[in-house]
Predict the structure.
Amino acid sequence: MLNSVFFQDLSIKIKELIKNSPAGELDNNIHALIQGALTKMELISREEYDVQAEVLKHTREKLNALEKKLETLEDLLQKSHK
């Protein structure tokens, strides 16, 4: 069985080699390209989605309450004209 320290050292050496090689620059360019594409697609985070969903829920509740108030006021207005 191989020692886990050996694998950790090997992993660190590989990361250093890639970081200092053209592949490391390619990795940075790919990351920037993906970030740019996601920004252009106007994607939002899950947290922002959840916040907006909660705002929409409260807005719907307020709208329903206002519709009920309006209905009550219209009923009162119709009764007073009779």
User: Anything to note?
Assistant: The chain has a mean pLDDT of 84. Helices lie at 4-19, 22-40, 46-80. DSSP finds three helices and no strands in the chain.
